[in-house]
Amino acid sequence: MRLTHSIQLLAYRVATAERGNRLSFIFTKRCPMARIEYLKQQIARAERLAKAILDRQTAERLQAFAAECLTELSVLTLKTAA
Q1: Contacts of 30 (CB under 8 A, 6+ apart)
Q2: Is 5 inside a domain boundary?
Q3: What CA–CA distances, in Å, run from 31 to 20, 23, 39, 65?
Q4: How confident is the model at residue 79, as a pLDDT?
Q5: Is the C-alpha dihedral spanning 49, 61, 71, 13 positive or negative?
Q6: Closest among 44, 43, 31, 46 to 79, alpha carbons compared
Q7: Closest by alpha carbon to 46, among 13, 69, 26?
Q8: Domains in the chain: how many in total?
Q9: Which long-range contacts (CB under 8 A, 24 or more apart) does 11-18 make?
Q10: Is there a contact between 14 and 49 (Cβ–Cβ < 8 Å)?
């Protein structure tokens, strides 16, 4: 029972900490450099959460999301370098 409460509390803290980043998505579509920074932050956030979470399925989904962001980041980096 206490473990469930701790997980819920952790999820609440993470959700409230992440709420301040909603506006960043609006600006990332216009500027490739902003999108690159956004993707780097999302990769770090997803990997951090995947390590901290106990649910295996959710951790795998977060890792898959981080891999997708990494793929997009590599494509975007190549486009901006060219």
Answers
A1: none
A2: no
A3: 20, 14, 12, 22
A4: 84
A5: negative
A6: 31
A7: 69
A8: 1
A9: 14/49, 18/45
A10: yes
Q: Is residue 12 a part of any domain in this protein?
A: no
Segment 37-80, tens digit of pLDDT:
999 999 999 999 999 999 999 999 999 999 999 999 999 988 88
Q: Is residue 51 part of a domain?
A: yes
Q: Which domain holds residue 52?
A: 22-81
Q: Give a yes or no: residue 28 inside a domain.
A: yes
Q: Give pLDDT tens digits for 60-71.
A: 999 999 999 999
Query: Distances in Å between the alpha carbon of 48 and those of 17, 35, 59, 68?
Result: 13, 20, 10, 16
User: What amino acid occupies position 40?
Assistant: K
Give the integer Cα–Cα distance in Å for 36 and 57. Answer: 27
